[in-house]
Amino acid sequence: MKNLLIVIVASLLLISCGKNDKPVEKKISDKPDTSGVLNVSKDDAPPSNVNLVYQLKKDNSYLYRLTSLSTTLQNVISDSTMKNTIKQSITYVFKMDVNEVESDNVMDIKINIQSVKLDATANGQKYKYESGAKLDSTERLRYVEYEAVLNNPFSIRLDSKGEILEVYRLDKIVNKFLSIQGVLDSVTAAQKKEFQTNIAETAIKPLLQQIFRILPSKNVGKDSAWSNQYSTRLSVFDVTNIAKYKLKDFAKLEDNRLAIIDAGLEIIARGKNKVSEQGVNYDFKTPEATGSGTIYFDLTKGCVVKAKTTSKLKMSMTMQMPQSPRGPMKATRNDYVENTNVLELL
After folding, report:
1. Closest C-alpha to 201, from 167, 176, 170
2. Once rounded to an integer, what is the mean pLDDT over residues 200-219?
3. What are the structural domain ranges in the chain?
4. Mean per-residue pLDDT, 184-200
């Protein structure tokens, strides 16, 4: 499921939301709006402070479109120079049905990934996937992570501050994934259960965290700032990711009040820069990452109606082999990754 994680670099910059009282049947545009801008008006009587909470309504249906645009540049310098470029655009459309809202405002939500569209180029070679298109067995295997989740609903439990308490009903996704790979009958029930847990933690949750982000526990007003942290492993470094937010202003969208939130990202990386292994000396530069973006949170609906965030990551590593059949060898690898994620309430 690794391709589902392409958006994870900027994961903690996005929040989520919901929509109207009726089942979603309307025609939606095939083309994502990647501007990230809403045409809002001035709020003439803004509140002094607000409580940001998710308020998804029981029996309501919600449509979200999440688009991730990524560029990866890799430069390897040794006796010669090799340059690799990967550009990728992935668009998901989610339908969410709120089955229950408990007394403590925990929401039980059924989620169906209705469509997936991928366009990518890697060193001049093009890749394309669009849900609903006819695929041969080789193509189904190549895009198994999309085929497995497509129109296979699962459920989550979500609290009002955006914490995903549980991901369940993943058995159909797991079975389809294993079936496409031709190993369904050779996997035990215990292994399937373990696979469900792995998918929930490493693929589904990171994807949904692009939609449901942790909100501040306290009331916030204009110019209020807050942050969230999470830890990841990046190469030889333990990384603390710090998502920073600031409530920039209040605005109006028709009759609804919005909070306009600026988002940013910083990292703190800890680890040994120099590592030796099997006669090879590695020198890793401390990675650098930044992020920025804007989130429009609808206070009337209790949700994000639009968000656009961008993250940038730089990494560099030098490898030296003092002794080899070809004599001393040295190579330097530089990586640059840029992700832009756009969330739209349709």
Report:
1. 167
2. 90
3. 53-68+89-215, 216-346
4. 95
